[in-house]
Amino acid sequence: MTEPRNSKSWAQPVDAFHVGEVAEGARKGNVEGRKPTGPLQGFGQLWQKTYEVRVPGPTPEELIATWKAKFGDFWPDYNKFYAPAGGISPGEVAVIGGGKGPAKVTTGVRVIYADDRSWSYMTPEGHPWAAIITFSAHEGEDGSTVARIHLLVRANDPLYEVSFKLFTSRMEDKIWNHTLTQVASHYGVEEPVVETTVLRVDKKRQWGQFSNIYKNSAVRTMLRRDR
Amino acid sequence: MPTANTTMNVREVAPRVRVIDISGEITSFSEKEISTAHEAAADGGVDAVVLNFEGLEYMNSGGIGLLVTTLIRAQRSGHRLMAYGLTDHYSQIFSLTRLDEAIEIFDDETAALAAV
Question: For A143-179, how does the pLDDT look when each residue is reduced to its tens digit (9 = 90+)?
């Protein structure tokens, strides 16, 4: 069988995250050497969240190219995205610093997939979410391009699960609403409307993953063990 | 919204064991096809649903998300989710996303059925 046309879009499997060259100031301690975690490895309930905005003008490919290049610029000011030197490409690891209040944390993401219409991140141990997060664009029925963020996410440990219910789920909604608003505004959309869909896929908590708490990056950040 | 070029066929291969033959693509736009096929495969109660990936031509990360939600549905329904027919490339993707820790993977249909 021939290789699928997107075989080079996938990263290679790794046992642990390795941070390459990133911008000065990035704290790698909560990322380097951490195992990748996806929605099957986390502790909390499993949620599927989808955020979409319509952007007339660019093609999906143009929008994704811009979004990749300006990913950190489209985030809220209180979050810092230390992009990898290789850009958003398969296998690259980015460091994240930021949050506010009790959700302050340094962590990272690894690009597990990237093509000209989408890319996906997977999170490391200790990240608030055990997740696969996909950013994509496609043609909408009205001819405009639809920019979409799709999360499949569990809180990584019991502490994060509590904060997810109290605070961080809403904060996350704000981050991605802000991001899509910025993406649309970049293309001149006035008062963009972000549509959000939330679905609880699994109400069970995975108590076997309780010990994830020992890698909690928010706690390590608070104790300044993230360097 | 774009449509996915996906075909899914459900067949019963043993008492309480059904196979879903997957052909074409699995992307985020295959949601309806995969959820309908899994519903049909699990209808009436089964011990295992086996995904046959021999006809898979293309999958992106949106497709991985669908496999995760299908696995959760299987767990909720109380049956096992198994797979065979993965090329080396797709085996690597299962490893990359750690799906291989939750979906039982076999070389072929005979091996999968022997394990039920």
Answer: 999 999 999 999 999 999 998 888 888 988 999 999 9
pLDDT: which is higher, B40 or A100: B40
Q: How far apart are CA A121 and CA A28, in angstroms?
A: 17
Question: Which residue is closest to A201 within chain B, CA to CA?
Answer: B69
Q: Please give the residue range of the domain that contains residue A191.
A: 7-222
| H helix or E strand, kind and range, residue A4 | none
Sketch out chain B's domains with CATH numbers: 6-115 (3.30.750.24)
- Side chain identity at A25, as an amino acid letter? G
List the CATH number of the domain containing A207: 3.30.530.20
Q: Which chain B residues touch A123 with a CB distance below 8 Å?
A: none
CB-nearest to B93 from A10, A14, A202 is A10
* Contacts (Cβ under 8 Å, ≥6 apart) of A102: A163, A167, A218
* Model pLDDT for residues A5-48, shown as the tens digit of each residue: 888 999 999 999 999 887 777 788 888 899 999 999 999 999 99
For residue range A70-113, list pLDDT tens digits in order. 999 999 888 889 989 899 999 999 999 876 665 578 899 999 99
Which member of A38, A141, A201 has the closest CB to residue B98?
A: A38
On whether residue A2 sits in a domain, the answer given is no
ipTM of the complex as predicted = 0.91
Q: First vs last Cα of chain B: how many Å apart?
A: 38
Asked if residue A162 belongs to a domain, the reply is yes
> Residue A64: inside a domain, yes or no?
yes
Establish if A1 belongs to a structural domain: no
- For residue B99, the chain A residue with the least C-alpha distance is A40
Instruction: Decide: residue A89, CB within 10 A, 0-12 exposed, 13-18 middle, 19+ buried.
Output: middle
